[in-house]
Specification:
The chain is 38% helix and 13% strand. It is built from 15 helices and 16 strands. It has helices at 8-14, 27-38, 100-106, 123-135, 162-165, 168-184, 190-197, 220-229, 236-256, 319-328, 343-363, 427-444, 447-462, 469-491, 500-506; strands at residues 16-18, 49-53, 60-66, 69-75, 87-93, 108-112, 142-146, 149-153, 158-159, 262-263, 268-270, 279-281, 306-308, 315-317, 377-380, 388-389. The protein has a six-stranded mixed sheet, sandwiched between helices. Strands 9-12-13 form a three-stranded antiparallel sheet, covered by helices on one side. Strands 10-15-16 form a three-stranded antiparallel sheet. Helix 6 (168-184) runs parallel beside helix 11, helix 8 packs antiparallel against helix 9 (236-256) and helix 10 packs across helix 12. The chain is globular, with a radius of gyration of 22 Å. The chain starts with 7 loop residues before the first helix and ends with a helix.
């Protein structure tokens, strides 16, 4: 595995930088220049360098090897940008006599950023996040940076679909992987990165002390704040809308930002964009049948491993937000609320998540945090009551970190079965922890709509394709307002009629 105790700052400084700008108008030529700069021997040996382009008119895309052929996934966060979108290419050196698997071992992904995406994404922080993940065998090795992008290794596997997310073997594997992320990865803050790198300059907003004065920044709240500030103010309607969103952000921060929970200061290193296309599953599991009900599990148990990709939005966040956001993605880009997890499905997911979190926190934690920060604590949140410590506090990590065989092969074990016995966490303690996290996620279920609704309002300003981002923003923000209405009705003891999303969430 990687070296969890190493210095990510040193890795960042040592990362090769290629002073070449990828030109979307002469894409293949630019890509070839980048590859030959990284691997000069590719230009001197026999065999053509071939490129597979995985994006055309979208913001995120990736191709993966499946059963000897390549499939291209168009990972769309609503059908996205043509000229402004990141471009992703797979570069392969076709060596005579090599199998496809051998070629893919050497393959490189070239990812060029879209124009103006710095409004939404801190690219330098993304690099640090990728290096940290790779250091813990949770991301492919990062090979180089260039003027407007990154180069890293190719990951074999099959891209998940929103229908996949609803199948129990897959969502348990996702839960386990997410539990690993939240348990072992340190929270990355600007202060930490500055300390590690000294001269590294981050293009992030200054720490908004008035918003989250005692939290590491950036975090999910300060990122939303940054996005709200970026909204246009050219009309009175836009001015009024921004003022409303700012008021709602401050309200939400007061209510949710300081509740104790899993992680350090209630925050974990979170993915924050776990849509189906950012989950890669092994090629042993067949794609779901279109005729299969979204509520039907696979007929027989299948061992599934998953990896997460695309770390653009990774940031410190309450784990309840990361999980609630993932649950929202069960509905896919079309926001099919009937596919969202029921209460029983959420409980199964959270049980697998907490078993994984507990196991990795106890036995798989890196040997200390940078700057001597303590391990995350396992605090819990009980709504409408005074927060208390969890029933089972974590013990010290072992001297030997948990080891995965490879970054894409975290295999489920007996702990993926909710009926399996975990030595250190009793069933009574586990049930109590599941209840607490279920309640906390309930209180975060409307925040992903707020988050992506504001994102869509910005996309409406910077995108050049014919897509109604304004309508998408209304759909996602509508989820937030529906959640607020349901919370208020519950507070007042009213039996108000629920919208489709809230009704699905409340179903057993």
């Amino acid at each position: 595995m990687g070296n969890p105790s190493g210095n990510v700052g040193d890795l960042n400084k040592a990362l090769k930088y290629i002073p070449i700008l990828h030109d979307p108008l002469d894409s293949d030529t630019s890509a070839l220049q980048l590859v030959l700069e990284l691997f000069p021997e590719w230009g001197k040996s026999e065999g053509e360098v071939k490129f597979t382009r995985f994006t055309d008119g979208i913001t995120n895309a990736v191709g993966y090897l499946l059963c000897g052929y390549t499939i291209a996934l168009l990972v769309v966060r609503s059908s996205l940008i043509s000229v402004l979108s990141p471009k992703l290419f797979k570069a392969v050196k076709h060596r005579l006599g090599h199998s496809q698997a051998q070629l893919d071992e050497e393959a490189v992904l070239i990812r060029a950023y879209g124009n103006k995406t710095e409004v939404l994404i801190d690219r330098e922080k993304e690099t640090i996040s990728h290096l940290l993940l790779a250091q813990h065998d949770l991301a492919p090795p990062l090979l180089a940076r260039f003027q407007n992008g990154l180069m890293y290794r190719f990951i074999p596997g099959r891209v998940c679909t929103s229908l996949d997310l609803t199948t129990e073997p897959i969502f348990k594997a996702v839960a386990q992987r997410l539990g690993q992320w939240h348990a072992v990865l340190p929270v990355v803050s600007n202060d930490m990165i500055s300390h590690m790198n000294g001269d590294l300059h981050l293009h992030s907003t200054p720490k908004p002390d008035s918003l989250t004065p005692h939290k590491p920044t950036p975090n999910i709240w300060t990122i939303i704040q940054k996005w709200i500030v970026a909204l246009p103010l050219t009309t009175q309607a836009e001015i009024d809308r921004r003022a409303t969103l700012q008021k709602e952000l401050e309200r939400t921060v007061r209510e949710l930002s300081n509740v104790p929970g899993l992680g350090k200061d209630g925050l974990t290193f979170s993915h924050c964009d776990l849509l189906s296309g950012n989950v890669i599953i092994n090629p042993d599991l067949p794609p779901p049948s279109p005729s299969r009900s979204t509520d039907t599990e696979l007929e027989s148990p299948v061992s599934v491993s998953v990896s997460f990709i695309d770390y653009e939005y990774a940031t410190p966040a309450p784990p309840a937000f990361d999980i609630a956001n993932h649950f929202a993605e069960w509905g896919g880009f079309e926001c099919i609320y009937s596919q969202l997890p029921t209460r029983s499905q959420r409980r199964t997911f959270i049980t697998s998540y907490l078993r994984s979190y507990d196991r990795h926190l106890r036995y798989g934690h890196p040997n200390g945090y940078p700057n001597g920060d303590p391990q995350p604590t396992r605090q819990s949140y009980s709504p409408n009551s005074t927060p208390s410590n969890s029933l089972s506090s974590a013990s010290s990590p072992s001297s030997t970190p948990f080891s995965t065989s490879n970054y894409d092969t975290f295999k489920p074990d007996a702990s993926s079965d909710p009926s399996a016995k975990l030595t250190d966490l009793t069933e009574k303690e586990l049930s109590s922890e599941v209840d607490r996290l279920m309640a906390e996620i309930d209180h975060f279920r409307g925040i992903p709509g707020f988050y992506w609704g504001i994102w869509a309002l910005i996309q409406a300003q910077i995108s050049t394709i014919e897509f109604d981002y304004g309508r998408y923003a209304e759909i996602r923000l509508g989820e937030y307002w529906d959640w607020r209405a349901a919370e208020e009705a519950e507070r007042l003891g009213m039996n108000a009629e629920k919208g489709e999303r809230e009704a699905r969430w409340a179903s057993e």
